[in-house]
Specification:
With 98 residues, this protein is an alpha+beta fold. It has 2 helices and 8 strands; from the N terminus they run E-E-E-H-E-E-E-E-H-E. The termini are far apart. This is Organomercurial lyase.
């Protein structure tokens, strides 16, 4: 779980500054760690549909599309958390019309 210096599919904007994370889950807790509200933008891992939400230190707001979710897995016991966990944690949406 980390912030990335390179562009990734998972972005969050804080105070006008765009930041990137290794996985979708990171975008949900970093705003609480830094005590700031962030606008998160990513994509559904299956359909490519944009997923956006506001994350405050206390709550998630303005989720689009409604019902979007995040996958979570139990990582293997490995020092390579990026490949064992982060590469598998994505946003997904319920896109019935696709």
């Amino acid at each position: 779980m980390a912030q990335s210096l390179r562009g990734t599919p998972h972005t969050f904007e804080v105070d006008g500054r765009r930041l990137y994370t290794w996985c979708a889950f990171d975008t949900l807790f970093f705003p609480a760690l830094i005590g700031r509200t962030a606008q998160v933008v990513s994509r559904c891992a299956v359909t490519g549909v944009p997923v956006s939400l506001a994350v405050t230190p206390a709550a998630i707001r303005d989720l689009e599309p409604a019902g979007a979710t995040v996958s979570l897995i139990v990582p293997q016991d490995t020092p390579d958390i990026h490949h064992a966990f982060c590469c598998h944690v994505h946003f997904f949406c319920l896109c019935r019309d696709r």
